[in-house]
Write a structure and sequence with these properties.
The complex is a heterodimer of chains A (about 300) and B (about 450).
Chain A lengths: L1 H17 L1 H26 L19 H164 L11 E8 L5 E8 L4 H14 L8 H6 L2 E7 L4
Antiparallel strand pairs in A: 1-2, 1-3
Helix pairs in contact in A: 1-2, 3-4
Chain B lengths: L1 H20 L2 E2 L10 E5 L15 H12 L3 E3 L17 H7 L5 E11 L2 E10 L5 E11 L3 H17 L8 E10 L2 E11 L6 E7 L4 E5 L5 E8 L2 E8 L5 E5 L5 E6 L5 E6 L8 E6 L4 E4 L6 E6 L5 E6 L6 E6 L5 E3 L6 E7 L5 E7 L6 E7 L4 E4 L6 E6 L5 E6 L6 E6 L5 E3 L6 E7 L5
Helix pairs in contact in B: 2-4
The chains are: A mainly alpha (about 300), B mainly beta (about 450).
Chain lengths: ~300, ~450
């Protein structure tokens, strides 16, 4: 029962650890712990304990062997005793020294720890103060910035307004100019139209005159050539010969060419003779119109239609 | 650069084209149907009367051209000069005399010894400038000069009208001379187409000669005469005067007509069946006869130019009218309905018309008329009281017939459109049954 009550807690911890955040926090905690331990170790390492070399130097002396030996043995025993005593003393001194050193060290460590705490506290305070100062500074800056922005905004609005006004004025001017231009153009167009209409009417009248003139001369030429054309081919089947004639300004026939033969040489020849006998042909007096009569195609057909 | 070059070419071409097509076009129709003004300048100042040419070659040619109705001849005394060569011809002088003159025929006849002559001619267009045609002949016997004149007429006619001339063809006809106290004299005569130079081929006293017709090659004439008081069909060879009997069946043997290929002859035979005749075709080589009609009096068969149809006249409907008969199907169609009677048909060379004798109403004149086979319309070509026996010239332009307005029949001609009428030189006695020859080679 007890275990089952404890198990959800462990499970929860385990679950929490499994979440990225839990894991991150746990790892950080571990890391911080390691750092603290690391830092402590380093602090301890600063104070080395040095152990002095207590080994005396050995001197050589020549003596009688047996006496020597005995003596020697005695000497050696004395020496050993002295040495042991000496060593014990040294050990006690050493131990006292060590204890003393340990106490000093401990004191030093405590002092250091105190100083460190104090230092840390001061630092924290300093940091807090700095933070506070920075915050104040930041706030001040923000205020200034805000003010600046407000000012800039206002400036911007002011400028925009000015711009708008300028544009409005410009637009107004432009519109006015356009209206003026349109008015002018309309006037010009009207004048132009009236002029064009006048000209067109004149041209039409001239054209009409030329047309009637043209028709008149076409008729005259037809009459002249017909009168000179001996056509004994009325019952000879369909015959058409097309001649092209060149006339000079007086209507004199300069050349006659059979453009398309009727296939009947006699019929073709009589058409040529008719044209030759008709020279000079009636020619319009109007120079422009006369130009149209310089080259004429003449289809001669023995059929009426 | 190349593109620019192309552009320039296109521009040049289009300019040219636009100029070339900007022409004014004036259509000319109608014209005037009148004779061509021509001057036939005398070929020589010499007199050739002894050669049968009292007016010289130019005289014969002038008459030929004039009689065709298609030429208006400049009188000789209106001519400003009488040049024989183009080099002597003064264009402006002639134009000044007659601005309408269109053609001039220049020629020369010079003796070449032994009663022969050298002849040359040139036909000139007054407005064309250059000579249209010219020919030269050497050592022509005097008695051939008239024929040569007709030949020159043919050349001039063909050159100017575009139609072959038939002045060098001939005509055959029969003359009858009645004497008060003697039997009539019948002659089969062949003359030039202008009626000159008549030659008697056959003369029979008291034995009539009728209905001469030319063989297609122009070497023979078939005609009707009598043997032992029986009407029979003969043929005579012109070159030899030799005759041979073609048809001498019982009763009447009449109205011979040679087929275009010369191998058969259509005829009207009574075969002893009274006064009525029927149309038969004889194969001349085998003398085999084929009969084509059975009912009524059927006579005057003539062959269409393509040899497939016989036109004839029949009284099967009452009065004589024209019928056609298809030789292949034996189908008979009536052609004429207009007029009291229509008879004696002949085809024009183009096969489009039949020239017939036509009487519009009882007691009215009998005239030469033309039937348009496309419409069956009948158009009278002559204006006489009694015009008989029409025969069409080989170029289809003229119709010769016997004109009986006066007591004696004379030879007369009309153009196929009925606008030109002329009579040929008088002959001795009455003329009957003229027949125009085919082209003679």
């Amino acid at each position: 029962m007890k275990q089952s009550r404890r198990q959800p807690w462990l499970t929860k911890v385990w679950a929490w650890l499994k979440t990225p955040r839990g894991l991150s926090i746990a790892l950080h905690a571990v890391l911080i712990l390691a750092l603290i331990i690391g830092t402590t170790t380093t602090a301890v390492k600063i104070y080395h304990v040095s152990i002095p070399n207590t080994q005396p130097a050995i001197k050589a002396t020549v003596i009688d062997a047996k006496a020597y030996d005995h003596q020697q043995a005695e000497i050696a025993r004395q020496k050993a005793r002295a040495l042991a005593a000496k060593r014990a003393a040294e050990r006690r001194a050493y131990e006292r020294r060590v204890a003393k050193q340990r106490a000093i060290k401990l004191a030093k460590e405590r002092a250091h720890k105190r100083a460190l705490t104090k230092q840390r506290k001061a630092l924290a305070e300093k940091r807090a103060a700095e933070k506070k100062r920075q915050l104040a500074l930041k706030q001040k800056r923000e205020r200034i910035e805000k003010a600046r922005q407000r000012k800039a905004q206002q400036e911007k609005i002011k400028q925009a307004k000015a711009q708008q006004e300028k544009a409005r004025q410009h637009k107004l001017a432009q519109e006015k100019a356009a209206r003026e231009r349109l008015r002018k153009q309309a006037l010009e167009n009207l004048v132009k139209q009236r002029l064009a209409a006048k000209r067109a009417a004149a041209a039409a009248a001239h054209q009409k005159q030329l047309l009637t003139e043209k028709e008149k001369y076409i008729g005259l030429i037809q009459q002249t050539i017909r009168a000179n054309w001996i056509n004994q081919f009325m019952n000879a089947g369909d015959l058409t010969v097309t001649l092209q004639i060149d006339l000079d300004s007086k209507g004199d026939v300069q050349s006659v060419t059979v453009v398309q033969s009727s296939g009947n040489a006699a019929f073709d020849r009589q058409a040529v003779i008719a044209v030759r006998k008709s020279s000079p042909l009636p020619m319009p007096k109007d120079a422009d119109l006369a130009k149209q009569f310089q080259v004429i195609k003449l289809p001669f057909s023995n059929q009426l239609s | 650069m190349k593109g620019l070059f192309h552009l320039v070419i296109v521009a040049v071409v289009s300019t040219f084209v636009s100029v070339a097509y900007a022409n004014l076009t004036i259509h000319i129709t109608q014209g005037v149907d009148k004779p061509y003004p021509i001057a036939v300048v005398p070929f020589s100042s010499q007199y050739f009367g002894e050669a049968g040419l009292p007016d010289g070659l130019a005289g014969v040619i002038s008459t030929d051209l004039k009689h065709s109705g298609r030429f208006a001849l400049m009188p000789t005394n209106n001519m400003p000069s009488q040049p024989h060569h183009l080099s002597d011809f003064q264009w402006s002088q002639w134009r000044h005399v007659n601005a309408n003159l269109e053609y001039v025929l220049l020629g020369q006849v010079t003796p070449a010894g032994g009663n022969t002559f050298n002849v040359q001619f040139r036909l000139v267009s007054m407005v064309g400038g250059s000579p249209l045609i010219g020919q030269r002949f050497t050592h022509i016997p005097a008695n051939r000069l008239r024929a040569l004149a007709h030949h020159i007429s043919d050349v001039v006619f063909r050159t100017i009208t575009g139609i072959p001339g038939d002045f060098a063809t001939r005509i055959a006809y029969v003359t009858v001379q009645h004497a008060i106290s003697a039997k009539p004299v019948y002659q089969l005569v062949v003359s030039d187409a202008d009626g000159h130079h008549p030659q008697v081929l056959l003369q029979q006293v008291g034995n009539p000669i009728a209905s001469p017709v030319w063989s297609p090659n122009g070497r023979q004439l078939a005609y009707v005469s009598y043997v032992n008081n029986r009407m029979a069909i003969y043929a005579i060879t012109l070159a030899t005067g030799k005759r041979h009997l073609i048809a001498n069946f019982r009763g009447m043997n009449s109205a011979p007509s040679w087929s275009p290929d010369g191998k058969k002859m259509a005829m009207a035979l009574s075969m002893g069946g009274g006064d009525n005749t029927n149309i038969y075709v004889m194969d001349l080589a085998s003398k085999k006869l084929t009969r084509y009609t059975t009912y009524g009096n059927n006579t005057s068969p003539v062959w269409s130019p393509d040899g497939k149809i016989l036109a004839f006249n029949s009284n099967r409907g009452g009065n004589p009218q024209i019928y056609t008969l298809s030789l292949a199907t034996r189908q008979v169609s009536r052609v004429t309905y207009n007029g009291l009677q229509n008879f004696n048909p002949v085809y024009t060379p183009n096969g489009k018309y039949l020239v017939i004798m036509h009487q519009q109403h009882r007691g009215g004149p009998i005239r030469i008329a033309k039937v348009d086979l496309a419409s069956d319309n009948i158009q009278a070509l002559t204006t006489g009281e009694l015009d008989r026996s029409p025969s069409v010239s080989p170029n289809g332009q003229m119709v010769i017939y016997a004109d009986y307005d006066k007591a004696d029949g004379i030879l007369a001609e009309t153009s196929i459109n009925g606008t030109i009428h002329l009579t040929l030189p008088a002959t001795q006695g009455t003329v009957q049954s003229p027949a125009w020859s085919p082209w003679l080679t």
